[in-house]
């Protein structure tokens, strides 16, 4: 048999890679890391492409399992398929080469800095803030990394003191590390990371910056992180 005709059984990794090999599709996936559902029109505007072009790319991403869609009336909304997909996109972004060209405008530079300082990665916190929280929880014995990240007994008690109730067990791991694409260090993901992120919003510790996935610490949040984790204001400055 000709070697070129041979087929290797198993996952089609090349097909998945091909979905993200296009800059527009990759940009869509990065935008959807904010955890929201977007319309094709919104994504087309974000990427600077025609609506028909966006629709073609979205059909491929939905067909390939990276996105899921739902319809409300005439509108079609898409989002990342699940937390595992979001963490895959974030990890790939951390491994990707940095763009050589700096932002061309002051607003673009400000947006880039804001994302590096603090942002959501699907449903958990990322950026310098997410990494700082993860490292502070580790230093205080709330997380154990000896056999992979795990919540300790003290960590469970700490969450309870904050009033954070973890959801019932699912196939999603309680704790997972997600390699941060700007910090190149892990931040906290999994069910615990999601619950903690939700609490920071509900308690008014953070607020979204415009419609992006960048977030900013409020004065209440700065005091809370100092009281509960010993984080000072300077921890919000991205490391270089």
From TrEMBL:
Task: Provide the GO biological process annotations.
Answer: response to cadmium ion; response to lead ion
Gene3D superfamilies linked = Winged helix-like DNA-binding domain superfamily/Winged helix DNA-binding domain
Q: Where is the HTH arsR-type domain?
A: 5-100
InterPro entries recorded: HTH_ArsR_DNA-bd_dom (IPR001845), HTH_Metal-responsive_Reg (IPR052543), WH-like_DNA-bd_sf (IPR036388), WH_DNA-bd_sf (IPR036390)
What does the record give under GO molecular function?
A: cadmium ion sensor activity; DNA binding; DNA-binding transcription factor activity; lead ion binding
Q: Which PANTHER family match?
A: TRANSCRIPTIONAL REGULATOR-RELATED, TRANSCRIPTIONAL REGULATORY PROTEIN
Which protein is depicted?
ArsR family transcriptional regulator
